[in-house]
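Z., the sequence and structure:
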Amino acid sequence: MEHDHDQFFLEVKLMIADYLSARIQLLKYDFYEKTAKLTATLFSSLVIAMLASMMLLFLSLALGFYLGSVFNSYGTGFLLVTGIYLAMLLPFILFRKSWIEKTIINRIIGQLTEKEEDEK
């Protein structure tokens, strides 16, 4: 009878060890998946931002040259383009915490908790 209890507790101990090992492995894989998704999102966002920046650079040059030819002064044309960017930049500087930082934080948290929401 004593032997049966020892065998039972040994089997329970092994089952608990197997369960914990499997649970740790599952948590590792979940971490790897979330890290991979976040990395992919950041990389694709970086590529989009770089391409958009290049497009914006060439559009800005074109607008500067166009306005320069309209006002017969390239300096004035590029100064106007700079003024347009300054007017667009000021609201972003003033509201960066509420607009940009919160949006980025929320997207990253959303990306990290996406699987948990799918399971519910």
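The chain has one domain: 2-119. Residues 2-119 form one domain.

Let me know what you think.
H.
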